[in-house]
Write a structure and sequence with these properties.
Length: 539
Amino acid sequence: MLDRLNALYPVRYTALALCVLFTLLSLFAMVGFGVGGLWFLLFGGLSALGWYDLRQTKKSVLRNYPIIGHFRYMLEKVRPELRQYFLESDTEATPFSRSQRSLAYARAKGETDKRPFGTQLDVKADGFEWLNHSLMPTTLSTPDFRTTIGGPSCSQPYEASVFNISAMSFGALSANAIQALNAGAARGRFAHDTGEGSISAWHRLHGGDLIWEIGSGYFGCRDEAGRFSEDRFKANALDPQVKMIELKLSQGAKPGHGGMLPGAKITPEIAAARGVPVGVDCISPAAHSAFATPMEMMQFIARLRELSGGKPTGFKLCIGHPWEWFAIVKAMQETGITPDFIVVDGAEGGTGAAPLEFTDHVGAPLQEGLRLVHNTLVGVNLRDRIKIGASGKVISAFDIVRAIAIGADWCNSARGFMFALGCIQAQTCHTGQCPTGVTTQDPVRQQALVVPDKAERVYNFHRQTLHALQELVQAAGLNHPSEITADHIVRRVNENDVRLLSTLLPTVRPGALLGELTDQHKVFQYYWPQAQPDRFGLV
C-alpha cells in the first residue's frame, strides 16, 4: 500500500507541494485581505525553483528531490572538509577513495582534474606506490589504446579499448542507466559488458559494442527449465552488436554465492531480457549446470565460440581455491582448447547487494588473483594465446597502469562509470530508492537520469581517463600501455625501504610449470601436481 501511495505521490516532492500550497494561500491572502505579499514572493520563488529543478537535465538529485536537493549542493560550496564529511561514504573514508571519486566526477563533467598543493597521499605510508618516469618522455599521437582479443580458434577478433564498462545487469541498473552507458560506449568506441542479466532492448537502442555475459542462470539463452539452450544462445550471439561472449564463473563481490531476483521486481522488460516469467522468483544458482568438470567447461567454451560464429569467447572468475584454477589450465592443455580471454575479478569489486561476509572476506583480491592467472599461463606457454582483463575498483589511469603491470591486457570498471552516471554512493541500490535514478526500476525515480546528458558524461570519463593514461605512458618513456611491467612500479614497504613491484610479486618463467617445480612458489609446488583436468577437487 505504501509503495502504491509513493508511486502516486512521491514523498520527496513534499517540499515542492507545500511551497505551491503556501503560494496559493499567500495569493488568496494578498488579494482578499491585502497582506501576505512577501510570503507570496518567497513561496512563489521556491515553487518556481522547484519547477525548474524538475525540468533541468544536469543534476539527477534535483530532479528527484526538487528544492531540498539544493542543501546537498550548498554543503559542497561551503568548504572541502564539510563536503567530505557529509557526502563521502563511511565505508571508504580514506583520502585515496575520496580522491578517486572526485576525480571520476570531474572527468565525467568535463571539469579540470588538476589539484593544487601536491599529492594528497602520504608518501611515507606503507604501501604507497608510484610509477617511475623517464628523462626521455615519448610523444604519442592518440590515447585510443587498443588490444586485439581473439586466439587461434577465433575468426572474429575484437579490437578492444584498454578501458571498458564492467558487468552491470539491466535490473540492477535502470533502463536509463543502461541507455546512457551504451550510448557513451558507442560514441567512445569502447565495450559495454551486459552483466548476467542478458541483453535488453535498452542495450540495443544505441548500438554500442556489447560483451554478453552468461551466468549460471543462462539468462537470454535458457529453456523453460532454466537449462542452457543452444538455439536461444545463437539468436543473441550472432547479433553484430555482440562482440565477445563471457562465461561468468564467479564475481569478486560474492564469489561462490548464487542469487535471487524476487518476482515482485521482475517487470515485463526484465522478463523479456532474461527469458523468465513475469512476477516469478528468478534464481541464479551458485554453480553452472552446463558442465561439471574443467574439461567439460573447455568443451562448452568451444561450443559457445562455434555457435557465435567464431567470436572471442572466454570466462570471468574471482580466484578462490588455486587448485581449481590449475585444473582449468590443465584442461586447456589436455583438450587443446583455450579461451580467447579471461577476466579476473578482484574481491574488492562492488555489487548492489551481497552478504557482508562475502564482500569483505571471500575471494582473492585483484593483485593476488591477477598475478596467479598471469603467472600460470606464462608457466605453461599459453599467455600469448589468451588475453587477460582485470576488474575490481579500477577507476583512475594509475589503476589501469598498475593492473597492466601485474599482468592485465585491459581493464573494466563499474564503479567509475557509475560515478559518471551521477552515483553518489547513497548505498540504497537494493531498496529501489536510488536518489539519482541509477539503480532503481521506479519509473519516476529513473526519469531523473537524463540519457543524453549522462551519455556525454560516460563518454567524457572514458576519454579523459585514457588521456591521463596517455600522459602516464609518455612520462614513462613508453609507446603503449602493454609495455608497462612490474619493473615500472615502486612500492614503499616501510618507512625506510622501497621495492620494485617485480621484486615483491611472484614471477614464473615461460614454460617453468612444464618441468620441475623445485624453484617455484609454494602454491605451485603444492597444488599444481594435485590438480587434475577432469575434476575441480583435489586428487
